[in-house]
Amino acid sequence: MAALGNKVLVLGASGGIGGEVARQLRDGGWQVQALKRGLATAAEQRDGIQWLRGDALERDDVVRAAQGCSVIVHGVNPPGYRHWAEQVLPMIDNTIAAARLEGATIVLPGTVYNYGPDAFAGLDEQSAQRPLTRKGRIRVALEQRLRDATRDGVRAIVLRSGDFFGPQAGNSWFSQGMIKPGQAVKVINLPSDPGVGHQWAYLPDVARTMVELLERREHLAPFATFHMTGYWDADGTQIATAIRRVVERAGGRARLRRFPWWLVGLVSPFVTTFREMLEMRYLWRKPLRMSNAHLLSVLGTEPHTPLDQAVETTLKGMRCL
């Protein structure tokens, strides 16, 4: 029997998507709990969120924190691209174990890593998942474990979207590859091959979509997957142009240039993060566009902040304006 009430555990609340979902749930009247390593006390209340000392890699910590929760938001990932193979699947197994005990719904921010280039044309929730990368195979395995758990009473919602950006997005291509946080924007890098489109997602819009899906969770399939459209950058330059437009309105000047993939390739044998970035380059070499038709059939509309407003809020949050 599913747990009742509006108590939720957010794993990864210190990060980008987890933090944004936690804040929006709090503002919507949910009782929000979150795990955090290294707390001086067993629990502390801060900004309307109950922070509990614990680690998503420790099953007992997750099970204890999830007591009485009707929802678990699994927004936790190993930092950067490192330790995926060792940590991603154990963490989802812990979340599933806690959800099974509480009858809770799991909400997962999905990625496009599940898909190989063969699926990019007309990508929807039924597209074949044939990833070419190690991280993609891990994400497929993660979602398969969620799907298997729904046969045993657990419910799950997966929301996939494009590359994140936002005022508190943490590690992202926007903040780490295109511009530099904490500095006035002088140069904007273009990761896409010339003319190749790319899909982006504004974190507050992604979080709002998750919250709205949660409000309808009792009417969804046990394993429900959705795609967001977000922002479609048709030629790989439109997000960069929006950044430059916002910077110039604030009195600055910025120029566009191609991302130095050659340098990443040169250094990748010696730097793990660069090696992992190179593995994902296929996402910038073929246009990736997801259909949100299924999402619209449930919500009616997709939360969508005007692009320049989203970019300006992001740049201010990154201390770039």
From TrEMBL:
PANTHER family: NAD(P)-BINDING DOMAIN-CONTAINING PROTEIN-RELATED, PROTEIN YEEZ. Pfam families: Epimerase. InterPro entries: Epimerase_deHydtase, NAD(P)-bd_dom_sf, NAD(P)-dependent_oxidoreduct. One of its GO terms (cellular component) is cytoplasm. The lineage of its organism: Bacteria, Pseudomonadati, Pseudomonadota, Gammaproteobacteria, Pseudomonadales. GO terms for molecular function: aldehyde dehydrogenase (NAD+) activity. It comes from the Bacteria. Residues 8-218 form the NAD-dependent epimerase/dehydratase domain. This is Nucleoside-diphosphate-sugar epimerase.
